[in-house]
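Thread: Newbie trying to understand structure tokens

Hi all, I'm a second-year student working on a class project, and my supervisor (Dr. K.) asked me to get a predicted structure for one chain before our next meeting. I've only ever worked with sequences, so writing a 3D structure as a token string is new to me. If someone could post the tokens and maybe explain what I'm looking at, I'd be very grateful. Here's the chain:
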Amino acid sequence: MVEVIISAAIVAIGLTAVLQLLSSSLNTSFRDTDAIVAAELAQEGLEYAYNVRDNNFANGRPAFPTAGAFQFPGTAGRDFCGPDFATPTFVLSGGGQNCFPNAKQSEHRYSLTEIGDFYGFQNAVTQFARVVAIELDNGANPTQATVTSIVWWGGSNVLPAGVFPGVNADSIDVSQCTRAHQCVYTQAILTGWKP
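---
Reply by user tm_fold:
Sure, no problem. This is what the structure looks like when written as tokens:
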């Protein structure tokens, strides 16, 4: 009887270790999956800016229009935008200072949720959030745009630590956008067009 109890205890200890290892492995897998999705969403935000620039060129407009219905963000400092896949343009609001209809500094405006085949913006707490920060080199006659697409996960209601250090989130520090902070980014400088 004692031998059976000792054997059962050894098996129980072994099973506990295996279950803990399995749980840890699953958690790591879920974190890695979130990081992969976030990286793709960051790239998608950058590609959208390329698409807007290319669409402007294809329709005979400047690559970065500074006024009108097709105005490109970033003419008055850095603008934070969210791609809207209904049309390849950025619709500026809030006195031309950002691309979101809601002017308050709320991270909910960056929340992403699956809408059909795309992730779209949702004014609620979601798993992923994205900001596309755009800054033109010249407000009057821009020749290039610096585009930074930042995605974080684990709850859109919590901004990643240190990434938006400004009081009203007008500045970014991409060196703080790390997997440890559940944040990834991609960045590019868009030029007017290749000859």
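A couple of things are worth pointing out once you decode it. The two ends are 86 Å apart (CA to CA). The mean pLDDT is 81. Feel free to ask follow-ups in this thread.
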